[in-house]
Amino acid sequence: MRPPRHDIAVAFRAPLGSIGAQLFQDAISLALRSRRVAEAVISCAVVTDEEIHAINRQYLGHDYPTDIITFPLEEKPLEAELVISAETARRQARDYGVRLREECVRLAVHGILHLTGYDDGDEQARRRMKRKEDALVAQFMNSDRTPG
Fold first, then answer.
1. Which domain holds residue 61?
2. Is residue 71 part of a domain?
3. Is the pTM higher than 0.90?
């Protein structure tokens, strides 16, 4: 069996301090492996609330900023775009009492779970997705020994 081939590009259009592309690449790769995705091309953009608000309004008809938006492009191999708000990630980390890097991991994992069949549209599906998300974030954070 071939090792997974994951091409993951990260672009920062909003600052996240010391958090770099590698954190997102590693979190996305972990989520893809957990879902047994052998091949994927994922682009992840870290943006401002203003930018994600405009994207949310234009493509989803929601007139507010959000934490993450996923855009599936192809199924086989999986191709997709993730758009994550740096400002919302900061607020949520503060509100949830977690480090910013953990919230960024959670958002990246959440996006991949959406792209690979998980949904949070109803309470039962939301609980199922949250359990998987929590397990992957814990796995990542337990293996992540970098400060911050």
1. 5-143
2. yes
3. yes
